[in-house]
Amino acid sequence: IARMQSDYAELARLAALLAKATGAKLSILPMGANEVGAHQIGFLPLKGDHAGQMLQHGKKVMILLGVEPEYDTLYGQLALDALEQAELVINLTAFETEAMRRYSDILLPIATYFETAGTFVNAHGQWQSFKVSAEAPGDAKPAWKILRVLGNMLDVDGFDYVHADQVREEAQAQSQTLTAPESFADRNVQIDLRGGAEMEIVPRLSLYSVDPIVRRSQPLQQAAGAPQAVTESNQPIDELTLCCGDTCMTLPNRANEAVAAGTVVVPVAIPETLSVPVACARVKQ
Fold first, then answer.
1. What is the number of H-type helices and E-type strands within the chain?
2. Rounded to an integer, what distance in angstroms lies between the CA atom of residue 70 and that of residue 258?
3. Which listed residue, 20, 239, 277, 285, has the most CB atoms within 10 A of its CB?
4. Given a cut of 70, is residue 196 above it in pLDDT?
5. Domains of the chain, each with CATH number or no CATH
6. What tens digit of pLDDT does each residue of 58-94 get?
7. 221-229: long-range contacts (C-beta < 8 A, 24 or more apart)?
8. Where are the beta strands (DSSP E) in the chain?
9. Contact, 282 vs 198, CB < 8 A?
């Protein structure tokens, strides 16, 4: 939950300061597969805008790789608006939707992670490789092969891979030791402990909404624990209205004493909440 907050840097520093003061060990769990691997090889927005800024301010050209920004970020409709306003959108995707056809100029079919060889790096930094478990349909190809061909067409150096093992070996050679979470205590981050008058929105991401594959699994979407368009707060009210600018939506509310006072839990990555993105939503009082 903390990782999805706009003030996560402040929360991370507070946690590090608390660990330092008490002599505790601080461990931060990654949100998704290969997040640790991305950090190890430096696949980070160290220069220029990060993904959120790209979706907020827009770009002339956008390249998407296995992602549905309206569901895989907290920007919902704002993400769709940014993509539709871009001059060129190249989409490497295993699925095709009406929204993709609307904002994409080029659709390139890629294999899912079941249909390609690759490597995941777990929370402990261990590299775990896997082989293809199913044949990709039609003309779909592993994403790294498509990127290799594009690099060759543009005469870019370093795109001579033949096997996925070569990609992994080069990535391992460039991997770096990650900074210990305790070092967050030494970072210069502005911390404001004053509570605001508005209710704090806490996004809730269901396990059955985390990626394009599980979102398309009908059995999972019908199972207990599947995402529901219902907010939760400790207030005994029937519904809550959320607004982003002039756009508002009203959702049923479920009273839950376990939810902290002054906060409301809002489900994300579901169609019912796309129109009012959590990234800009406010609770209408």
1. 10, 11
2. 29
3. 277
4. no
5. 31-177 (3.40.50.740), 200-283 (2.40.40.20)
6. 999 999 999 999 999 999 999 999 999 999 999 999 9
7. 227/267, 227/269, 227/270, 228/267, 229/267, 229/270, 229/272, 229/273
8. 61-65, 88-93, 106-109, 118-121, 127-130, 200-204, 231-233, 239-244, 247-255, 263-267, 282-283
9. yes
Tell me which residue of 191, 194, 205 sits closest to 262, measured CA to CA: 194
Half-sphere exposure of 131 (CA within 13 A, CB side): 0
Strand 231-233 versus strand 247-255 pairing type: parallel
Nearest Cα neighbor of 131 from 145, 120, 118 is 118
User: d(Cα 37, Cα 246) in Å, to the nearest integer?
Assistant: 40
State the CB neighbour count (10 A cutoff) for residue 31: 10
Q: Among 62-71, 89-98, 100-109, 174-183, whose mean pLDDT is lowest?
A: 174-183
